[in-house]
Each structure stands twice: as C-alpha cells, then as structure tokens.
Amino acid sequence: MEKRFTKDHIGIGILGLGVVGSGTVDLLMRNREEIEKKIGLPIRIYGIAVRNVNKPRAVKVDRALLTDDPRSVIDNPDVDILCELIGGVEPARSYVMQALEQGKQVVTANKEMMAKAGNGIMKEAARRQLDLQFEGSVAGGIPIIQSMKNALAGNRVTEVMGIINGTTNYILTRMTEEGASLEDVLREAQELGYAEADPTSDVDGFDAGYKIAILSAIAFTSKVSVDDVYVEGIRSISASDISYAAELGYIIKLLGIGKRMPNNQIQVRVHPTLLPKHHPLASTHDVYNSVLVKGDSIGDVMFYGRGAGSGPTGSAVVGDILDTCRNLRFGSTGRVACTCFETSTVQPIEDVETRHYIRMVVQDKPRVLSAISGIFGDNDINIEAMIQKTIYGKQTDIVWLMHESPGKAIQAALSAIKNLDIVVEVSNWIRVEE
Ligand SMILES: NC(=O)c1ccc[n+]([C@@H]2O[C@H](COP(=O)([O-])OP(=O)(O)OC[C@H]3O[C@@H](n4cnc5c(N)ncnc54)[C@H](OP(=O)(O)O)[C@@H]3O)[C@@H](O)[C@H]2O)c1
To answer: Which of 71, 236, 358, 395 has the smallest CB count inside 10 Å?
Structure first.
C-alpha cells in the first residue's frame, strides 16, 4: 500500500490540557524549531479539546485552539495525529477508535485504557497500519516501552521489574527515613500535591497494576489481562515492618514484577516487597521510578528517572509524536505493531514461590517458638532468620524470614498459627525478592 505523506506539514490534535497535555504542548512549542528539523517537516496544532475552555491553563495557548467538543478535533481533516491525554477508559477509548477509523495516528499516555482495552485498540491500529504509541503510559519520562519494542527487541526477556508508582515510593521513602506512619506521610503528600485527594489507585496498587500489565505484555509478547494481575497496595506497611526489614538488611518497596516461568506461564504481580539494600532498585527514592529488565543477551539493564509529572510525561508524549511524524513522512506507520503473539497464562499468586517476611505478636511464654516453627515445618517452610523482641510487658514481636516457598504454604501455615492461643495477631506478611 502506498502511504507516502504528501502534505507540507503534519497536523496534530490534542484531547486534554491538564498535567500531561500542558507538558506536551509546552515542549512542542518550546523546542519546535529543533523538533521540526528532526522530523524534516513543520508541525501544527489544530485543536485542543478540554472540558472547560475558560479554566486557567499552565501553558500559554492561543484560546482559539481550545474547544469543549472533542469530535471537532478528531474529525478535523487537517489532524494527522491525535494525542489522547484525558485519561480513563471511556470516552477516551471511543475517541481513539474514532480517530483510528478515520485513518489517524494515535499517541496516548493512558495506562488504564491501554491495560484494560489496549488489545482491541492495538488490533484496530494494526489492521489499518497506523501508529498507536503509548510511551507516557508507563513510568512517565522513562523510555521503557520504545526501548523494549526496539532496542531490546532481539532479546528473550525473562524479567521486568520496577518501582513504577511515584506516590507510593515517596510515601515509603519518607516512612523509611523518618519512621513516620503511612497516614501522616500520605496526608503530607496530599498537601504537597504528590498524592491525589483520592489516593486509592496509587496506594492500593491499581496504578502499578495497569503499568506492569502493559510492561509484561510487551516483555513476554503475550496478552495480559489486567484481571489476572495480583495487586496488593501498601496500606498494611507499618513503621515497624520498615525497621525490622532494615535490621535484616532489606528495604520495603512497592514493586511491579513480571517473570517468565517454565510451562508457558508468566508471573504478573504488584505488592510491597522486601528488597536487599544492595539491589539495583533499592536506591530509587522519593517520586523517582526505575525499571529493571533481564534479557537473554543483554543481561540486566536498568532505567531510572521521573515517573510522572508534566515535563517528564510530556517528554515521552512528544517523543512518540516525533517518531510517529517520521513514520508518517516515510510511509511507514504501523511498523511496530502489537507483538502479543504468545499465549501465556498468568501463574496464580498462591503458586508463586518467593521468600517471605512474617511479623506476629505472641505471648511471652515457654514453647511459643517451637509451636509456631512446628507449624511452619508441617507446611514445608524453612526458616532462614528470626528476630524476637519483647514489646509491651508479656507480649513479644516475632519476625521471621523464610526460604522460598509457595504463597499457599504460607497461607495454610498462618491460618493454623492464628488459631494458637499464644498468638495475639499475625501482623504482616510481605514477599521478598532478590
Ligand atoms: N499526571 C501524570 O503525571 C501522568 C503521568 C503518566 C501518565 N498520565 C496519564 O495521562 C493522562 C492525563 O493525565 P493528567 O494527569 O494530565 O490528567 P488531568 O490533569 O486531569 O487532565 C485531563 C485533561 O483532560 C480534559 N478532559 C477530561 N475529560 C475530558 C472529556 N471528556 N472531553 C474533553 N476533555 C476532557 C480535562 O479538561 P479540563 O482541564 O477542562 O478539566 C483536562 O484538561 C491519563 O491517562 C493519565 O493516566 C499522567
């Protein structure tokens, strides 16, 4: 099919002028001359759809470009590339489909839409040989998607693992540095604008779940349903867990983890994790993100940077726009289509084998340790290390570090342990990665 671009400039339409939209427009205007030289053609913004055209904006734009009618941007025949930067699944998905149906290229930063409905959208783009680029959807400014789809594409990837939610990393960093409680740090993060008024998506791990679903699908060339991703947030993490983990030589991070297993299975999970202090991801602090990829040829490769915000995410969106412009110009759009050609199944979390950290409060009495360790033994769980501290009078905190065992063995052991008279509570159970 002859697709060579015959216009003398490339038209861009944008849906959304919030955090990411402003960063995108600002960068396109600020570095316009250089960007156009890199593309080899001028670019022009034809319209920007928002909900409220009268709202003050973080970036100076010609008011005449603003509209509250997204269809006027999507349907504009001068628009060659539609940037969807409004978020959520609907109406974003419908707008993207409408643009693709009209033969337009699409750039988006929408992780929720890509994780929940990306497959259908990508199929439509591939069928029409159109670009659908979504670098901004994972880890903000970090170029992880383009890198996996292009530079690392020769590798068989065995693992992709990262700190992919800046809000929770900020909270855990502050808790680690100050011994503060999650509630106090969260409240402060909300005041500083690092956490949303409704922090559910971040704190309960859903945001990281969308991102690890997207990364795993690319890494393992397989469709990953977001419903199959095990997601556990950080609400259960206390200052005590952080301090016991430190005593054992670990730091607690919320990780997104994707692993290729034998028998065509993959692991895709998000949960708080004890990481050894010397682990490459362990020094990622505050709102920063990092992603570690293991490939059969490259070995370990790590990406680090700002995982959110106007400038960093705008950088990712503009990178995608630039790449799409080049593809348009040379008639090569749709070149890097969906690569989900394998059909892997996600291993149930109960079967996932890791090491484990367990904290409990017990009565300070004889034979307590033998009763508990007996139950661990009955479930084939090997103890690696233990800390015991008397906390208040007759009660003792016990922290266990366990060798590798499946989650279901720990679950069974903890159900039995909870029924012992000498056990006051099982306070936390956190997986450990190396
Ligand atoms: N914020 C980040 O750091 C970040 C990082 C990576 C990816 N992302 C993703 O980028 C996308 C945008 O996020 P954001 O933080 O920029 O959101 P935001 O600040 O809330 O901005 C959303 C923009 O979309 C407009 N909008 C919303 N619904 C609309 C509709 N139905 N029709 C027309 N315009 C509509 C809003 O208009 P008004 O301004 O008039 O309300 C606003 O300008 C999301 O998918 C998000 O997950 C965000």
So the answer is: 71
Q: Where in the chain is the domain with CATH 3.40.50.720?
A: 10-141+310-329
Topology (CATH) of 10-141+310-329: Rossmann fold (3.40.50)
- What region does 44 belong to: left with phi over 0, alpha with psi -120 to 50, or beta? beta
Q: Is 211 a catalytic residue?
A: yes
For 252, list phi and psi in degrees, rounded to 5.
Answer: -100, 125
Is the distance from CB of 294 to CB of 159 less than 8 angstroms? yes
CATH 3.90.245.10 fits 145-306, yes or no: no
Ligand 1 pocket, Cβ-based, cut-off 6 angstroms: 15-21, 49-52, 55, 70, 85-87, 91, 109-111, 136-137, 140, 308-309, 313
pTM value surpassing 0.85: yes
- List, as one string, the DSSP characters of 324-357: HHHHHHTT-TTSS-----B--EEPPGGG-EEEEE
pLDDT one-digit tens code per residue, 58-108: 999 999 999 999 999 999 999 999 999 999 999 999 999 999 999 999 999
**pLDDT tens sequence across 382-420:** 999 999 988 778 899 999 999 999 999 999 999 999 999
pLDDT tens figures, 231-240: 999 999 999 9
